[in-house]
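A note from the maintainers: we've had questions about how concatenated examples are separated. There is no special marker in the raw files; a new sequence line simply starts the next protein. For clarity in this README we add a label.
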Amino acid sequence: LRRHRCWIQWSETPVRPATRFDLGGQTLLALSLFALTAGLNAVAGRQGSPFSMAGLSGAGLLFFILFIFHEKRASEPLMDPELMRNRAFVWANGARLAMQFSYMGFLFLICLFMQNIVLFSPTRSGILLLWITLTMAGLSPLSGALMDKIGVRIPLVTAFSMAAAGYAGISTIGISARMEILIPCFLAIGA
């Protein structure tokens, strides 16, 4: 009887009606990302003429501008354009984007460094990088709960500061990189 009464009192969230998929917005965004990526790859590989590199990058920016105009007029946009008026949303996502760029660049370069300069095996390099992954996996639930209690500012600033300290520590290592230096730096980056 209690279960039945709880079910009546706490009904589930109402189901939203089926929404249309914004195929136009999805296509414009995909074309934008493809053209920008192809332009950046052409620049990095020095393939093709400078005009083709600029053309691809320009086409990517044009598709992105068209995507923005399309999303403003769409009845069910991929992303609500009103979110861009929220300064906290824009700054938080900008900071996260910068952090991800630095993290992905770091992973690529540290793998090359450990294998080609320090002469670690690929297996040893991968196992060392697991410290970052394990730290992220272990602290993610805790940081989410902490952000619910005290807000996002202090945990984010702390996490970015610890990552910066880890990157600074990694920048000081040389050919004779030791585990005692690498592991604490990786833990700081993962936090």
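[label: protein 2]
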Amino acid sequence: NNTAIELNIPDLAGEMLLQQWADRDVTMEYADLVRGADGFIFFVDPNVRPPTLIDEVEDRPAAQVRSMSEYRAREAPHAPQIVDAFQILDHLRSGKQTRIAIVISKWDQGQRVAASPKALLTQELALFDQYLTNASWIEHSLFGLSVQGGNLPAEKSRLITVAPEDRIFAYSDNVAKPAFDLTLPILWLLT
């Protein structure tokens, strides 16, 4: 196929999404970028801030309990922040059907707690997983991605003996075994 495509991958920092969550505002540049895009790659760090469960909360005197006015948006668990970012995408795109490759980065760290990207999402970001299951405007695929091939510094002695191109790998719930191809999420978006 000789079809030409234009691939534009701006690097938007996660801190920008955190600011969007905390300030409840988006920039015009971001809104224009979202409205003009044909697809998205969304990176998720597997080392998420978990929600606080009721049985984990210490009994404290009422005077020490933070009031709602003291709520700190930046301290919220990651799952609600991610769902909020996706709801904003949906709003800015007016419900337009959208392909999103969801990439769990540092897969070499995340794979220790989950057998697949879907399993990790279900275990660590259940709210986001439920949102994806029910968001009819999203066509998504999940990927686990490692550019180091292991956990540093714990596995440094092993990793130093492996060529860099042999350390990278990508997992997908749609592929039976890992591939040594970091472009899998992009290829999925383009098909």
